[in-house]
Specification:
It is a single chain. By secondary structure, the protein is α/β, with parallel strands linked by helices. 40% of the residues lie in helices and 17% in strands. It contains ten helices and twelve strands. The strands form three sheets. Strands 1-2-3-4-5-8-9-12 form an eight-stranded parallel beta barrel. A two-stranded antiparallel ribbon has the order 6-7. Strands 10-11 form a two-stranded antiparallel ribbon. α7 links the parallel β8 and β9. It starts with 6 loop residues before the first strand and ends with a helix.
Length: 292
């Protein structure tokens, strides 16, 4: 049963997945189209698109991929490149008419790469704000506090809405989801706190909050609980906690079983306890999950 009102950006057209990388290396356009169709049939509202370094090295092929994907599906595309020139290729290849008039998403805008706004000369787009970094006196710094993340969200949303005519609903704030296995600094708790702070800010009313959900289960052991992979249950644990705080958009694999877990679910209980800990205490508590 899909989670009501949860927006899903399908993440499988990415060479980080071995099967997708093989499609890209073999220039298997039909295979990429089939992957796009499968994601939409599984519930994706947008498709994230990157062919990795190949996109920079071979812009013609990147354009061919985008056009082929739009021939196969009607949902808007999200272009996942921090490079202005590659984004130009993407936006020029994109045809809004093939997506029901919907705008693409540029993923991602950051205080350290405001030149991305030059892309508006090509066509209007929706935008992902990368809130994991900010400028402090002109010096790039990682956002390690929820106040930093919320501050980036507020400043960049203000620029987009006030100066460039964006509607709030066209803005997605990426709060950055980290692997729970390696989170010794409480970054998952920070992300959850940032969601809460963003939703409490009247200036950010109507913006979406997004994160790469696949990351939360990275490096978990390949275990199953009642026939469901542990990493997929951990994704649902994050959603169970984050959605009530205001998280509303998943960058993830659409056919994974996104569900709201019952309060007594052992993985959910573990997730809640781990996110209150730091250092090796967090790692030891997480390992108890598969040691018992």
């Amino acid at each position: 049963m899909p989670i009501p009102d949860l927006i899903i950006v399908g993440d499988r057209i990415n060479p980080g997945f071995k099967s997708t990388n093989a499609l890209i290396e073999n220039e298997d356009i039909a295979g990429l189209q089939a992957l796009a169709v499968r994601q939409v049939q599984a519930g994706a509202h947008y498709l994230d698109v990157t062919i990795g370094q190949r996109g920079s090295d071979d812009p013609q092929f990147l354009g061919e991929v985008i056009k082929a994907l739009q021939d196969a599906v009607e949902v808007p595309l999200c272009f996942d490149y921090p490079n202005l020139a590659v984004q130009e290729t993407c936006l020029k290849a994109y045809d809004p008419a093939k997506a029901g008039g919907r705008k693409p998403i540029v993923n991602s805008l950051a205080e350290t790469r405001m030149e991305m706004l030059e892309l508006l000369k090509i066509r209007p787009f929706e935008a992902v704000i990368m809130a994991s970094e900010y400028l402090d006196g002109g010096v790039p710094k990682p956002a390690r506090r929820c106040e930093d993340v919320a501050g980036v969200a507020r400043r960049l949303s203000d620029v987009l809405i006030r100066d460039h005519g964006f509607a709030a609903r066209e803005i997605f704030v990426d709060i950055t989801i980290n692997s729970l296995v390696s989170d010794t600094r409480g970054l998952t708790r920070m992300a959850l706190d940032a969601i809460r702070q963003i939703r409490r800010d009247p200036a950010l009313r109507g913006v979406h909050v997004i994160g790469g959900l696949t990351n939360i289960g990275n490096m978990l052991p390949p275990l199953e609980i009642d026939g469901v992979r542990l990493r997929h249950i951990m994704e649902s644990a994050f959603l169970t906690v984050a959605i009530p705080l205001g998280f509303d958009t998943v960058m993830g694999t659409p056919w994974n079983p996104f569900v709201i877990l019952p309060a007594d679910d052992v993985v959910l209980q573990t997730f809640k306890e781990v996110t209150e800990l730091t250092g090796m205490d967090a790692i030891r508590r997480l390992r108890k999950l598969w040691a018992t």
